[in-house]
Design a protein that fits this description.
With 164 residues, the chain is mostly helical. The protein contains six helices and no strands. The protein has helices at residues 17-25, 30-49, 54-73, 80-97, 110-129, 132-148. Helix 2 packs across helix 3, helix 3 (54-73) packs across helix 6 and helix 4 (80-97) packs across helix 5 (110-129). It is elongated.
């Protein structure tokens, strides 16, 4: 007689399977959406005013990676060109800000301002279309892609002690 309990099959449902499915399929509350967009909007506002920091630039760049991951998931399609122009704008801001090898805030050119404003608006639209699980999957895809390129990832929940 064995002293071990029999293994539970993988397919056996747990008691709260439906609760988990409902929570993941539900759209986030408007207050949660506003909290998710607040960091992006604050970073864009600082960049627009010409006082943006390197951390704020990275918030915009990371959000752009999440927006691209949402597009690859197929939930919101047709934004590739707008996101590509925002990527180009962020790259030119990066090059200008690091001309002296130390970050210096730089004013934006009109096309950069327009591309970033369009990106922030489209990102807000994308987040409004996603369920909780779809958003978490997009964040995981973007995180994986950034790490695979050799860069370091810092999630917003890990930035509690970082002043923006």
């Amino acid at each position: 007689m064995s002293r071990h309990a029999p293994r539970r099959p993988r397919w056996a449902p747990t008691a709260d399977t439906m609760a988990i499915a409902k929570r993941n399929a539900a759209k986030p509350a408007p207050a949660d959406m506003a909290g998710a967009l607040q960091g992006v909007q604050t970073a864009f506002r600082a960049m627009r005013e010409g006082v943006g920091t390197q951390v704020q630039w990275s918030v915009l760049a990371g959000s752009l990676d999440v927006a691209n991951a949402i597009g690859r998931q197929g939930v919101v399609r047709g934004l590739r060109e707008h996101l590509a122009s925002a990527h180009d704008a962020l790259q030119s801001i990066w090059r200008r800000a690091l001309l002296t090898r130390a970050w210096h805030a730089t004013p934006l050119h009109y096309y950069e301002l327009d591309a970033l404003q369009t990106f922030v608006d489209l990102y807000a639209y994308q987040l409004g279309q996603l369920g909780r699980a779809e958003f978490m999957r997009a964040v995981d895809l973007a995180t994986g892609q950034i790490r695979s390129s050799g860069a370091r990832v810092t999630l917003a929940r890990d930035m509690a002690g970082v002043a923006a």
